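Section 5.1 Outputs to date
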Amino acid sequence: MPADVLWDGYRQRLEAERDAEAITYSLWVDWFEDHTTSATAFTEVLGNDADTRHLAELRHVLTAGHKNHYRSPGAWDDAVRSCS
């Protein structure tokens, strides 16, 4: 399957009115937990549509491979310092 078709499918399901639990689980387990694919997933899911002042920090945390804020309580603070 071409990558653009895959990511278009993810985005369409996330935007749909019906429950997207399976999609969010797949994104988390298959893409966001793996530090080698999290940056790609983040970019493809949010792309340039991400209108947030914390985009750099979010990308930093995800690409660093942090899986759980309870296991990495200082991850956000590290990202803020790194991106300042």
